[in-house]
Amino acid sequence: MVGKLRKVKNTPCQQSAEPQFVLRRRDIILGLVCAIFFIDTIAPVAAMGVSAIGWMIIIGAVFFFPGCLMVAEQGAAWPENGGLYAWITRAYGQRWGARIAWMYWCGNAMWISSAMTIIVNVFCQLVGIEMGLAEKALASILVVWVITWFALRPMKNSTGIINFAALVKIIMAIGLMVSGMVYLMQGHAPKNTFSWQAMKPAYGQAMVFIPALIYNFLGFETMSAAAAAMKNPRKDVPIASLSNVILVIGLNVIAVTGVLLVIPAGEVDIIGGIIDCFRLGLGDGTLATVIICLIGVLYLAAMGAQALMWMLATSRIAQATAQSHALPALLGRSHPRHDSPAGALIVGGIITTVMTIASSALSGSAQEMFWSIFSSTTILLLIPYFVNFQAFLTLRKNDPTPRPYRFPGPAWLVVALMRLAQAILLLTALFLIWVPGQPFKVANAGFIAIGVMLTLGVGEFFIRRCEKPAVTPDRPQGATHES
């Protein structure tokens, strides 16, 4: 499908040949919208009720906003391919960078399986057909490889798809609000009470939904993984990052409000809630039906492009890491014509396929195990962010590289915000294992722990194996690598 792959010897901290396609500032902003604004999580968040609006503003202010400012400084100071991997490598050495790159890439490859499941289920809802478990698994695998094929195309093609998907997401968020307003104009009352008291976050709800809210704001570093393809990353990354703070928080609030105007919080379907909102808001007339079908098609396309964005971002980091000889060489190989991270994309597609087959086999009472797998992959995706917050502080202290853009505010405030963000990530990981107020399920917690440790163990094996060729008879291994 992709032809013979070629090896590339440049390291992630080097700018290699002139990129075949240059990312403009508009591409960076839309790419971040595509990666961060998860339209498919709007329904689960809306299920919280009106208090979700308050929580989104709070989490956006204390986690997403500082994260964007942090990445703006890092991306401007070190505009190189690799993103998280390159920054953490600078702070703690190649071995730690490789560990983070492995978790980031492998965790995403496993998570994509769940995203494909949502796409297939929404498609079934849209066209009104029923599929068995095996048929849904086959459909999910087909979608995985279609998206992988697009990811292997030239960056110009991928960027066009991602930009289109970002615009679709923006239109859909506004469309949800318009749908809610049309519903009110037809004489209906809002299905939920909107007031300052209702928007006030409730402590119990926060514990249950913090993972979903945090997940809504991950991905603020994704475009920095392709910094070498940017015309002026030192200027473009900060502007794009700060623009997305306003865009993403605003779009989330608008979309959730639109859903809650039409559907009672307790009745929001976490998979079909978006389509339900349009159907209830716009009605069942001929024109409305055509519009809803068009919206559904665009919704599926946007979700596919979102998966494409994450595939590319994590695969570029895995590729950069492998090219520095810290991960298996296969992951560092590029497409011979399109220069896409073919090795990491194809291996990632295989991992996603295996996960899809495994999850489809876990039917009935074993479905809890599938969600345990999902929790494991989410924890794997949280760890790189936690380490990068720490790496940011370490580089500020030890690296004298000039900062074209600097995180504003006194040093103590910056440290406090980084620590707060890390605490939020730790709480998110905890709530993925155990939700306070519910029984502690030892089997599920044990399965999650085993899944995380197994993935980390396999990664550590590959990382150590890749280090061995660097050891010479004249130099002991301990003198060559950091621990």
Q: Give start-end ranges of low-pLDDT stretches.
A: 1-20, 471-483
Query: How many helix segments?
Result: 16
CATH architectural label? Up-down Bundle
**Helical fraction:** 55-70%
Which homologous superfamily in CATH is the superfamily? Amino acid/polyamine transporter I
Instruction: Provide the CATH top-level class.
Output: Mainly Alpha
Judged by helices, strands and strand pairing, the structural class is mainly alpha
- Shape descriptor: globular
* Biggest sheet details: none
Strand % is under 5%
Order of helices and strands: HHHHHHHHHHHHHHHH
Q: Please, how many domains?
A: 1
Distance between the termini: 40 Å
Q: Calculate the mean pLDDT score and round it.
A: 81
Estimated radius of gyration? 22 Å
Q: At the third CATH level, what is the topology name? A: Amino acid/polyamine transporter I
How many strand elements? Answer: 0
List its salient traits.
Amino acid/polyamine transporter I, 483 residues, disordered N terminus, mainly alpha
What does this 3D model show about the protein?
- It is a single chain.
- By secondary structure, the chain is mostly helical.
- The protein has a single domain (25-467), classed as Amino acid/polyamine transporter I (Up-down Bundle), CATH 1.20.1740.
- 69% of the residues lie in helices and 0% in strands.
- It has helices at residues 25-36, 42-46, 51-77, 84-92, 94-127, 133-151, 155-185, 196-199, 203-216, 233-262, 273-282, 286-323, 342-361, 367-398, 411-433, 442-467.
- α5 (94-127) packs across α6 (133-151).
- The chain is globular and about 70 Å long.
- Residues 1-20 and 471-483 have low confidence and may be disordered.
